[in-house]
Amino acid sequence: SKLKITTVVNSSIEYIHINNYEIKTWYKSPYPLSTNKNKILYICELCLKNSNSRQTHYNHQFKCTNHRNNNNIKTPPGNQIYFAQINGLSIWEIDGRENIEYCRNLCLLSKLFLNSKTLYYDVEPFIFYVLMKQTKDSYDYNFIGYFSKEKSNSLNYNLSCILTLPIYQRMGYGNFLMEFSYLLSRREFKLGTPEKPLSDLGLLSYRNFWKIKIAKTLLLIKNAFEQSSSSSSSSSSSSSQAQLTLKTITLNDLANLTGMTTTDVIFGLEQLKLLYYHTPSVPSPASSQFSPNKEEVKIKIKIKSWSILQELVDNWDSKNYPNVEPELLIWKPMI
Ligand code: ACO
Ligand code: ZN
């Protein structure tokens, strides 16, 4: 049912103009032929309409009034399911079935920065989660990035494709989107993993994500045990009690706490160099293999130094990247 785009690949788009930035493109994307002549493609960051002429683009900016919020500010289509006052970040849920043109334009845009993925013209099986940031002065919404998610799949995929616009990369927004994709999985009572294969940048970012996520989760568990044991008994050392009780933590516990599949939990543990035994061997995250059966996998971890984990987390937190606040998500699974 998936149709591949067969339009001639546009080789002439060298820059996209979006939010008054000109961004050099990385790869080719099959934009329709009518936009082929110009090297700069103008994109409206609200409705993603594109044009090859500056004039048409600026005229459109005034006309683009499809969607407005209660304060009469132009917004992207779909429902705002997350908004954080503190940093102006919002997530918009856009159904590929309801906003076909927007979603196709989003796929075309992301293809400019993606080599590996096959682009599908058929956006209807997907939901798109778009990250916008409101500016403090004008309250305008700026497009930061997005991820897509297949509405139903049998392989636990909670993210199909992810993009942060290059001008916003290395600022923690990719991490934010990944965190958000796992939050949705937890709300669905599912474990999730990104669709394979990952791009080089996707792999780098996920490796870092899994590592930090597991480190934070282990520290949370340890602190919870320490608190409960220090309140229940005052005689013995709380940290040795925590060690004892922590032994009962299973791979499934870590998966359920994070929303990550057990395979990805193992990758996280591996990144942290905590894993000293596992069977059978784990497939690489870049490969197309999916989670092995939970029953088959046995692991042992050894935490030699909690302070190394704490330092890693502190160092990450000190970057002050935006965090996902789960209580700000107003959302129920679609199906
Ligand atoms: N080099 C080295 N490490 C990186 C890089 C990089 N270019 N990008 C991310 N990381 C790692 C770093 O540890 C980084 O932390 P740091 O910047 O403090 O060192 C951490 O990941 C988090 O990075 P973010 O800032 O959260 O990630 P970003 O917003 O830049 O987005 C993304 C990452 C979405 C992969 C972006 O690079 C992108 O859009 N790339 C083009 C499209 C793409 O390849 N998407 C993934 C395809 S795979 C899939 O969709 C399932
Ligand atoms: Zn528009």
UniProtKB/TrEMBL annotation:
Q: Per the similarity annotation, which family is this? A: Belongs to the MYST (SAS/MOZ) family.
Q: What is this protein called?
A: Histone acetyltransferase
From the Swiss-Prot or TrEMBL record, state where the protein is found. Nucleus
Q: What domain of life does the UniProt record list for this protein's source? A: Eukaryota
| Gene from which the chain derives | NDAI0E04730
Query: What fragment of the whole protein does this chain represent?
Result: 328 to 662 of 880
**Which residues carry out catalysis?**
195 (proton donor/acceptor)
The MYST-type HAT domain is annotated at 8-333
